[in-house]
Design brief:
This protein is α+β, with helices and mostly antiparallel strands. The chain folds into three domains: 119 residues, Sandwich (Immunoglobulin-like); 93 residues, Copper Amine Oxidase, Chain A, domain 1 (2-Layer Sandwich); 212 residues, Zn-dependent exopeptidases (Aminopeptidase, 3-Layer(aba) Sandwich), CATH 3.40.630. 19% of the residues lie in helices and 32% in strands. The strands form seven sheets. Strands 26-25-27-31-28-30 form a six-stranded mixed beta sheet, sandwiched between helices. It has a five-stranded antiparallel beta sheet with strand order 7-8-9-10-11, with helices on one face. β21 and β22 form a beta hairpin. The longest helix is centred in the last third of the chain and has 18 residues. The radius of gyration is 26 Å and the shape is elongated. It binds zinc ion.
Length: 486
């Protein structure tokens, strides 16, 4: 705790079909749609990636020079005797409103169209940017003018895409740096929109794969963003691994019976123990089956968000991480493939956590919190808004949990039983919490308090281990019920 129960501004529908099989996630965030309506320029540099609005002036596209330079260094501007003087780091320049002639570092040259001054904002033609930026920054600049993407220095992110001919096939995309696109699906297509990543096209704009389920993907750039669209006749879903450097795309299962829930963990579980490979044998393909986990563990808080200060030394985010890693180890030892949403001290939004969980398609999601208040364990399940029942094929983002309440209750009862067997005080509660409400799987939050009021015990390996064993036993007891729910 503390819980964040901020309501989501815009409901995002989750497409469901058949026996509560999550097929695909539609996330039309306000940011995405807003981004595409207004003309924008994106700037990518080693220091920052950002975008600025583009305006029309006398039929040409203009951008504010100050706004572009500000994130890149120390910049100041002033008007002086009809001139606009701008200094960036140690480079001085002069611009004259209504004229093309400018001076940068004592050298004169002409812009392709007139400079304009508007409320102290110096506006330069978009097409003048490569030349201007090169002069101000002294580094190579690469400008994709039609899509309005400006690359400063050697920042490009490249990717490779390959379909593994497994059953079902998987499209594995590897990126040279972590990416976090916005993902949306529509019939026949899964779209990934990259706004902050300097992603550059592969050799060809269209990639074709020798796979009927995933025949092709296309790359395109427009309005300060890059987009990869993956085409397929059946709904596709995406999952992330390798700290955001790998995206795996799989066709959604087409029939409800699902035996994978009972299958052994996948050969490669990120962060898990290395797979056993007999000497001389070929290593398993990076992804030999759809990335699917039985358990997703969410170590709440992290990075900038510390959670509760449990005492002077102990932050909640560290306790949830330590417990999450311990619990994963315990679960994996019992044959449950387990994903921990953050494996380090990183900041993640609740929406990111819910998106990643739903994409991983687990049988159960467990969110971890810690508190210095009270003793023992509190187990929470979602308290959904009244009238939040889902009708028909669309499920509201805020009530994605509604179809999984029975499974969540089954899990909580089982966890409570096992904790009780080990003499750990336990209470089961309902709360209108995020992201529990957004999870399309059995979903439980576990809040750990010290066993006897001594806060230091929250970092005691013996205590955390006892709780981890109880939770694992609780999941094991209802394994078949949970596995059948997805
Ligand atoms: Zn918390």
């Amino acid at each position: 705790m503390p819980w964040s129960s901020r309501p989501r501004d815009h409901a995002a529908p989750v497409v469901m079909a058949g026996m509560a099989v999550l097929l695909a996630l539609l996330v039309f965030d306000a940011a995405v749609s807003g981004f595409s309506e207004e003309k924008r320029l994106s700037v990518y540099s080693g220091a920052a990636s950002y975008s600025v609005p583009v305006r029309e002036q006398n039929g040409a596209e203009y951008v504010g020079l100050l706004e572009i330079l500000e994130p890149l260094g120390s910049v100041s501007a002033r008007t002086d005797g009809g001139l606009w003087r701008l200094s960036f780091n140690r480079v001085d320049s002069e611009f004259t409103p209504g004229q093309t002639r400018v001076r940068v570092q004592g050298k004169s040259f002409d812009l392709p169209a007139n400079f304009w001054l508007e409320n102290g904002h110096g506006l330069v033609p978009l097409s003048s940017l490569p030349g201007l930026m090169q002069r101000f920054l002294g580094t190579a600049v690469n400008f994709h003018e039609t899509s309005r993407r400006l690359f400063i220095g050697n920042v490009a992110v490249h990717f490779t895409a390959q379909v593994n001919r497994t059953n079902p096939p998987t499209l594995v995309m590897n990126f040279t740096a972590p990416v976090n696109p916005m993902i949306a699906t529509e019939p026949g297509k899964l779209r990934m929109v990259f706004t902050r990543e300097p992603l550059v096209p592969p050799g060809s704009q269209t990639l074709t794969f020798d796979s009927p389920a995933i025949p092709s993907a296309t790359f395109q750039e427009s309005n300060g963003a890059a987009e990869i669209a993956v085409n397929g006749p059946v709904p596709l879903f995406a999952s992330f691994s390798n700290n955001g450097r790998t995206i795996t795309i799989t066709p959604a299962p087409q029939s409800a019976p699902n035996t994978q829930a009972l299958a052994p963990p996948p050969a490669v579980a990120p962060g898990g123990p290395a797979p056993q490979v007999p000497p001389g044998a070929a290593p398993p393909a990076a992804v030999s089956s759809p990335v699917q986990y039985f358990v997703v563990l969410d170590a709440s808080h992290g990075g900038d968000e510390r959670g509760a200060a449990l005492n002077d030394q102990l932050a909640e985010k560290d306790v949830t991480l330590a417990f999450g890693l311990r619990l994963r180890q315990q679960l994996q030892a019992h044959g449950f493939s387990t994903l921990v949403l953050r494996e380090g001290d990183t900041t993640m939004s609740l929406d990111q956590r819910a998106n990643m969980t739903n994409a991983a398609h687990p049988a159960i999601y467990i969110c971890l919190h810690a508190t210095s208040q009270g003793t023992g364990i509190r187990l929470y399940t979602a308290l959904l808004p009244v009238g939040g029942e889902n009708q028909g094929p669309f499920v509201d983002w805020n009530t994605a949990q509604s179809g999984f309440r029975a499974a969540s209750q089954t899990a909580v009862s089982s966890l409570a039983t096992e904790l009780g067997k080990r003499q750990i005080a336990v209470r089961s509660l309902f709360a209108p919490l995020r992201p529990l409400n957004n999870i399309a799987a059995a979903a439980v939050a576990i809040e750990i308090a010290p066993p006897s009021g001594k806060v230091e015990d929250l970092s005691s390996p013996a205590y955390l281990q006892l709780v981890a064993e109880s939770v694992t036993a609780g999941i094991e007891a209802v394994r078949n019920q949970l596995g059948g729910a997805r």
